[in-house]
Amino acid sequence: MAKPYVRLDRDNVAVLLVDHQTGLLSLVRDFDPDKFKNNVLALGDLAQYFGLPTILTTSFEDGPNGPLVPELKAQFPDAAFIPRPGQINAWDNEDFVAAVKATGKKQLLIAGVVTEVCVAFPALSALAVGYDVFVVTDASGTFNEVTRHSAWNRMTEAGAQLMTWFGVACELHRDWRNDVEGLGTLFSNHIPDYRNLMNSYAAVSSR
Amino acid sequence: MAKPYVRLDRDNVAVLLVDHQTGLLSLVRDFDPDKFKNNVLALGDLAQYFGLPTILTTSFEDGPNGPLVPELKAQFPDAAFIPRPGQINAWDNEDFVAAVKATGKKQLLIAGVVTEVCVAFPALSALAVGYDVFVVTDASGTFNEVTRHSAWNRMTEAGAQLMTWFGVACELHRDWRNDVEGLGTLFSNHIPDYRNLMNSYAAVSSR
Amino acid sequence: MAKPYVRLDRDNVAVLLVDHQTGLLSLVRDFDPDKFKNNVLALGDLAQYFGLPTILTTSFEDGPNGPLVPELKAQFPDAAFIPRPGQINAWDNEDFVAAVKATGKKQLLIAGVVTEVCVAFPALSALAVGYDVFVVTDASGTFNEVTRHSAWNRMTEAGAQLMTWFGVACELHRDWRNDVEGLGTLFSNHIPDYRNLMNSYAAVSSR
Amino acid sequence: MAKPYVRLDRDNVAVLLVDHQTGLLSLVRDFDPDKFKNNVLALGDLAQYFGLPTILTTSFEDGPNGPLVPELKAQFPDAAFIPRPGQINAWDNEDFVAAVKATGKKQLLIAGVVTEVCVAFPALSALAVGYDVFVVTDASGTFNEVTRHSAWNRMTEAGAQLMTWFGVACELHRDWRNDVEGLGTLFSNHIPDYRNLMNSYAAVSSR
Amino acid sequence: MAKPYVRLDRDNVAVLLVDHQTGLLSLVRDFDPDKFKNNVLALGDLAQYFGLPTILTTSFEDGPNGPLVPELKAQFPDAAFIPRPGQINAWDNEDFVAAVKATGKKQLLIAGVVTEVCVAFPALSALAVGYDVFVVTDASGTFNEVTRHSAWNRMTEAGAQLMTWFGVACELHRDWRNDVEGLGTLFSNHIPDYRNLMNSYAAVSSR
Amino acid sequence: MAKPYVRLDRDNVAVLLVDHQTGLLSLVRDFDPDKFKNNVLALGDLAQYFGLPTILTTSFEDGPNGPLVPELKAQFPDAAFIPRPGQINAWDNEDFVAAVKATGKKQLLIAGVVTEVCVAFPALSALAVGYDVFVVTDASGTFNEVTRHSAWNRMTEAGAQLMTWFGVACELHRDWRNDVEGLGTLFSNHIPDYRNLMNSYAAVSSR
Amino acid sequence: MAKPYVRLDRDNVAVLLVDHQTGLLSLVRDFDPDKFKNNVLALGDLAQYFGLPTILTTSFEDGPNGPLVPELKAQFPDAAFIPRPGQINAWDNEDFVAAVKATGKKQLLIAGVVTEVCVAFPALSALAVGYDVFVVTDASGTFNEVTRHSAWNRMTEAGAQLMTWFGVACELHRDWRNDVEGLGTLFSNHIPDYRNLMNSYAAVSSR
Amino acid sequence: MAKPYVRLDRDNVAVLLVDHQTGLLSLVRDFDPDKFKNNVLALGDLAQYFGLPTILTTSFEDGPNGPLVPELKAQFPDAAFIPRPGQINAWDNEDFVAAVKATGKKQLLIAGVVTEVCVAFPALSALAVGYDVFVVTDASGTFNEVTRHSAWNRMTEAGAQLMTWFGVACELHRDWRNDVEGLGTLFSNHIPDYRNLMNSYAAVSSR
Questions:
Q1: Which residue numbers delimit the Isochorismatase-like domain (chains A, B, C, D, E, F, G, H) (predicted)?
Q2: Which of F119, G20, H5, H155 is the most exposed place for a label (fewest CB within 10 A)?
Q3: Is the ipTM of this complex over 0.95?
């Protein structure tokens, strides 16, 4: 039986950023570090651009896992921030679930480190209680391709949809005319090839 | 539950070519450029060879995305051509949907740039309203393998079938005897190994 | 809904070898040629070893596609051999379907060149009429990984099971005690690492 | 229909280690040997750490397949150990099935060599009789990526869940506070990057 | 001791195309077929564009190696064409050496199939008698990367310079102002990304 | 004969940035775009940080090649900027050579797009007249690995040394004590893993 | 200074096969096993075909390294066979050096397992005393690409030439007319693509 | 001119381990972490086994770079340990050079993190003053393959020899009979495939 097309609706989306911590990031080896940093910050930027309620959570900030990456912390000064005292699955933390419920949204975008644990566990838990779950695959990192594909498989079979930050931005925006400049800036800041297109175009057009 | 075998039927197929624009093509990095160009033109050639109604659409032709690649434009001078004023999902454009409906076909072959947006969004929309959707994977390009596989996964789960241009040509043609020379020419023009086989064969046979 | 475990039963299996022709093999680029040759011959050897009814078919033997590889022809002198006059999908050939029916078997092992056409089309057709279809993935070759994965996806969604020749041999044999030497010889001839293990073992044991 | 979230429960889990034998390990080429050795021993360590009932089995220990790797044998001196006299599918061995039943557990973690046979066959058999099966993909090795993905596909379609040893450990542990040091030691011993994080942290903290 | 910079001089260059035959091309597996075909034809086009004396040679045209690829034959109707009766090293053929000498050029561009034989042997022979040899690496194909790198190493150590067709064209042309359109057309025909740049540019400029 | 160790000396180094133009960058496919952008900007930052005389040059800015990337233009407002009217080898442009001479430096760091032309040609020319040439390999991009390695080979054989931006920065700086914070900031801005180390360290240290 | 072209001369070549033992072969992971087995046997076949004096040697046959692979032993029943009692570098064994000298040849083809030890050590020793050394790279295996390239680099710098079995055969044979059928059989037995060409050719020609 | 064969002599070798620090190791991405950890510890073990004088050095231990990995510190309690206060090139530190001189050895084995800086700089400096330098490539890590190959190239051109830990151990040991068990233990501890061979052998032999 095919999954129906659950389309992202900017009025019904919340973003969960799970354990993007300075120590844990050294475990991520299924992406080049330059690309992964860019993808995570792009997701942060789009959450901010679309004004999506965003929840940040960390695991053991005070230990080797390290603090939340400062850029994200700076970007969401007023967001719910749930430093978990020990629960590995963020969904086992009552404050976290309460924060999700408080958004009143039904569609959850989840990204985190590492994919098969910090992303997969809350994704599976959220699916089990009826949320629509969209995993942002390119802002979620893990040890290698075997762990990644095992995680994708488990989440997909449970009903999650796999998306990437660019697809998310496009599905939320719907129509360029809603704000050409805003979306263009987002892409220019995070897609070098797009930035080049824009700069080439601007050079010729301005003549 | 297994999907039933929906077999391509040349009397019931329309082709949707979405956003193969000269600027956007620089974003495609999951294929070598020589191969991708060949695959897109092969799909154009087969659409023409089988006389399939073909719909071309672009996004923001006048901006950095650039115009439709001239070869495709030249190949389908009489095709429906829908330059979208802003809708990212082509299916959100009424003229586009009308053009699809006007073909009277139920099976849609979709290819475009980039896969997770320009292909996936109309594919999901078309599936939702009952079309049989076949994604031509090797004529659809995107940023990298993570975005590709995320897009394939989302479309497959929603009921799309993944095919490639060679498979499409073979399933449409059914029997070499329908036109040996025509199909052979299509393959010779787009599969160098096949061309070599034919040239080797011709050399020996003609002696 | 999970697929039930349909286990290969040597009394209920037929093997379909589709279009392993000397010309078409030059199209196969998702396997190294040494490995692919070995896999195809291993499948031939196991069909013979287990006494499975085997059907050979080719497409346009007299043209550039070239003849059936001589090793397979020699290995199955009495097998049904259906040179198709033009049908691309072997299942569209009545003689081929009749030959399959004549085996009286319900489980079909299919391998061929190229995967998305010569394997996928008869696999989908056979599934549609109720056969249990097992694709021998490593004895089936195609242009590249995009065509391979598109074909695997389409066949899997339709109900096919993906296996490899080694798995097939093991599932058919069930128990080493049925014939240690026979199975060992099959593995020694087609798995260099296994051959090395046996030779090392024999050297020490014989002292 | 999405699979429900069956969550690992340390009171309901048994571990099946199938055919990790010194000879057979030379067949494993889809992992680097250093990494694979580490993954298998990590799974052994976690089974021991969580006190999970563990069943070891081998195929033809006295022949070229070689003995069980000594580290595993040493680690589970009191575990059920079933050297199979010939059955390829461990589930065809009555003692093995009895040992599984004797654990009284419903959730089975399975790993072994090679994936498409020694893991897939008992996984499919166990699913068929109602167990929840979790394949530990990174402690299961095989010839190459084609055999791996064919095996993953077959098992997934039949209802198995794909996990990796790190995910298993995290899902079983649930909360770091249950034993910070124990889990930390497990990770430090088997994840070099984590060990480095801990050592860096300790160095600064102790000043 | 560093090699001095021997710069290509269009008045002193001859091109040797060795054994680009329809059969032998099926041996080439270190390049994707679409890309390799493009590279070879690009080299042919540049030889023609710069009016470089070009020598074509083949090995056993009448046997399985097959005829020279027809496109090259058509492109150089008046070029020296030396079908060798048996010599594997083209430099062992007196007519071939005479043809090279007859050009009066000192700088030789060599490309062919397969790299370690048809290219390396005449390259080494030509170096030994004092020619400056430039191997066009991307128009020379072979079995795999081990054979390629072994061949590159042997030729480089003997004094050959490794270049690619694009570098050759640029070093011969020296200055765009010599013929902007001609060079631009060459690049547009053989570099899809460059063609896209030109088409995008033309679209904006023409407004 | 081994090359002597010519060590970078910040008082004797000039930087040549050749053709990093918005159009030409779409040709670069031997690096992921995120990484390549980062590498080029890192080289710009280090040139600025060490106060190295820097020369910028472009080829046909007004055509499809596009303008210099704006970030570099902004970073070096007072640098020599030589838009070449047509010369492909920047060293064929008298103004460029004059600008190099005017720096009075003997050690040249060269980076550009594409490696085998815009980098290799001036590198070979500069070597021929006695400069010490250091190619910054990771800030120089090209079509693919075959063109890259051919270019590296040709330049190395002629006496160039291959370095990367990180090695250049370290060899110029010599001793962290010269300015810990400055070098640390450079690395933090362009090496995500280093940034993480610093942030983790800062978090613990500040407690 | 460029190396002169030392061309293989069948009257002046000896072959050294070092430590192709059934146990040691399990260490080889820079080649697929099917391909490596084929390459080693191809080298054996060509040595036999050209009647080259061949010396076989092993290290610790009676221990875990295992015996010489039986195929080679069978192929050279009368060859010098030097089971070394302990020397790791075969050149440290007086009998081995004596056997090499006894051939009276100056050009040595060396292949073995593992490349950086069993091949590199005798290669370096032979070079040091004036032999011309040709490493058969594709019949020499090792742990991974880092060890391979380190070994190639060390041997090349010391004066060895890198060749592959196919290049060796071609350089020894010089001219197809010396024996078309013999060389063709060698290639047909070890190059599946060549075999296919021959079979296709034969099929058409015989009509 | 070929480099002469400088053979490692255990009476004339010192080992330099440069900056294997817990923080810096997170920068290493040209090796899988499990494999790199194994390689570094293998080098430590062989230095200890052969009783080679070993010098350890670190850069900024108290900052983000982190302390020397504890295993190495523990393994060489009495070795010279030079924590550098700021010099990036260890050879710029007088104590380090003095420690090297104090060993009285002429052959230096160098490994470290990252290859193009911590290894290449002292390697080039040591070569410049007449040492024989052997880079242990697989115990030296860096950001990616571009930085690795640039570093290898620069060091090789300056006269360094590239080796790996296994080759080093074999060249130092010369003859198994010097201590079969000791060398065997070293290999068994760091080469899983070798350990398996030994365990298989022991199992059969002990019967």
A1: 14-165
A2: H5
A3: yes
User: Is G5 among the domain residues?
Assistant: no
Edge-to-edge, what's the strand order for the sheet holding G107-112? G80-84, G54-59, G13-18, G107-112, G132-136, G161-163
Query: Which residue would you say has higher pLDDT here, H193 or E1?
Result: H193
Q: Find, among E80, E71, E136, the residue nearest to E108 by Cα.
A: E136
Q: How far is B207 from chain G (nearest CA, A)?
A: 9
CATH code where residue C57 lies: 3.40.50.850
Report the gap between the CA of G193 and the closest CA in chain B (Å). Answer: 12
Which C residues in the span 2-31 are in contact with D, Cβ-Cβ below 8 Å?
2-5, 7, 31
Contacts of F29 in chain B (CB under 8 A): 29, 32-33
Say whether C69 sits in a helix, a strand or coil. Answer: coil
Q: What is the CA radius of gyration of chain C?
A: 17
Q: Are residues F125 and F91 in the same domain?
A: yes
Proportion of chain F above pLDDT 70, given as a percent: 100
Q: Give me the mean pLDDT over the G164-169 stretch.
A: 98
pLDDT in tens, C78-97: 999 999 999 999 999 999 99
Nearest-Cα distance to chain A for H65, in Å, is 13
Are both B147 and B184 inside the same structural domain?
no
Q: Are residues B201 and B132 in the same domain?
A: no
Which residues of C are part of the catalytic machinery?
118
Pick from C21, C25, C26 the residue to mutate for testing the E interface (most E CBs within 10 Å).
C26
Which of F:178-197 have CB within 8 Å of D? 197
List the domain range (segments joined by +) for residue F138: 13-174
Mean per-residue pLDDT of chain C: 96
Whether residue H204 is predicted with pLDDT greater than 80 in this model: the reply is yes
Q: Which H or E element spans position D166?
A: helix D165-173
Say whether pLDDT at H207 is over 90. no
Could A174 and B87 be called an inter-chain contact, meaning their C-beta atoms sit closer than 8 Å?
A: yes
Please say whether the dihedral angle defined by the alpha carbons of residues F18, F24, F29 and F31, taken in this order, is positive or negative: positive
Instruction: For residues B3-7, give the mean pLDDT.
Output: 91
Instruction: Give the active site residues of D.
Output: 118
Counting one residue from chain D and one from chain G, the pairs whose CB atoms sit within 8 A come to: 8
Q: Would you call G118 a catalytic residue per the annotation?
A: yes
Which chain G residue has the Cα nearest residue C198?
G22
- Return the beta strands (E) in A49-207 as ranges: 54-59, 80-84, 107-112, 132-136, 161-163
Same-domain pairing of F91 and F39: yes
pLDDT at residue D91, as a whole number: 98
What is the number of structural domains in chain E? 2
D171 interfaces chain A, CB cutoff of 8 Å: yes
Backbone phi, then psi, for D112, in 5-degree steps?
Answer: 175, -175
> In angstroms, what separates the C-alpha of D118 from chain A's closest C-alpha?
19
**CA H207 – CA H199 distance, rounded (Å):** 13
The reply to whether residue A147 touches residue D162, judged by beta carbons under 8 angstroms, is: no
pLDDT at F150: 98
The predicted model gives D193-199 an average pLDDT of: 96
* Summary mean pLDDT of chain D: 96
Q: In what order do the strands lie in the sheet with A80-84?
A: A80-84, A54-59, A13-18, A107-112, A132-136, A161-163
- F85-129: per-residue pLDDT in tens? 999 999 999 999 999 999 999 999 999 999 999 999 999 999 999
Same domain assignment for residues A160 and A187: no
Which residues of chain C from 122 to 151 reach within 8 Å of chain E, CB to CB?
A: 144
- Check whether residue B114 and residue B142 sit in a common domain: yes
Q: Give chain A's residues under pLDDT 70.
A: 1
Interface probe for G, chosen from E87, E127, E147, E152 (most Cβ of G below 10 Å), is: E147
